[in-house]
Amino acid sequence: MLKDNLAVVEKNIADACKRAGRSRSDVTLVAVSKTKPNEMIGEVYALGVRDFGENYPQELKAKHDTLPSDIRWHMIGHLQRNKVKYLIERVCMIHSVDTEELAETISEQAVKHHLVMPVLAEVNMAEEDTKFGIRPQDAEDFVRRISVLPGIAVRGLMTIAPYVENPEDNRVHFRNLKNLSIDIGRKNIDNVAMCELSMGMTNDYMVAVEEGATLVRVGTGIFGARDYSAAI
Ligand SMILES: *Cc1c(COP(=O)(O)O)cnc(C)c1O
Q: Which residues is 154 bridged to in the sheet?
């Protein structure tokens, strides 16, 4: 089942790349494994996937410490400052940086562990009240302010688009995020490389790839529906 699901997602990404004239190698599939057991992650790993996304620090820590060490773990969920210490040596990227305070904590922890953490600024493109993320008009200023922190490398932008029936409805948000990243990239801010765009989930990743996503975060499409009652 997982094998078939993954094959469908892979084909959809490849087709979307083709439609957009992009190379498949420019898009990384992040398999979102939150709430899913190690056995399922192991199955997807055996099929060749190395990038996995998690939302909850303790769950990520537990999985990281038992699963193969060449997995690249991505923190994609809302992150509280006091949980950064669980993640700092376990993740390859934090996609969900949405406050200066959080960025400062990541910076402190990174310096303490002698590493540089790649981060993305989370932007609330649809300006939904229920979502975390900075407002699009504040993004450049936010990137400038966190870019000066030691131990942090700003690598791009991330967004969580609204839940919509028709994925085409999110195209405008993906396009706007891409344009925002181009605008900020043109400012040549020290220590900032606008090379990653984390956008697109099960419902809309094909549209996101057409609009320039470099990281798509697909959970349900690979692992099936989530049962949160079993979550850590
Ligand atoms: C859970 C989650 C996903 C995956 O969602 P699906 O709809 O299951 O693909 C992607 N991104 C974030 C930030 C998430 O929290």
A: 119, 192
Residues 6+ away with beta carbon under 8 Å from 10: 29
Residue range 177-186: average pLDDT?
98
Rounded to 5°, angle at Cα 86 from 95 and 103: 45
Query: Looking at ligand 1, which atom is closest to the CA of residue 34?
Result: 1
CA of 119 relative to ligand 1 center, distance in Å: 18
Amino acid at 217: R
For the purposes of burial, counting CB atoms within 10 Å of the CB of 169, is it exposed (0-12), middle (13-18) or buried (19 or more)? middle
Asked if 200 contacts 159 with a C-beta cutoff of 8 angstroms, the reply is: no
Q: What is the pLDDT of residues 62-91, one digit of tens each?
A: 999 999 999 999 999 999 999 999 999 999
3-state secondary structure of 75: strand
- The ligand 1 atom at the shortest distance from the C-alpha of residue 158 is 13
Mean pLDDT throughout 12-39?
Answer: 98
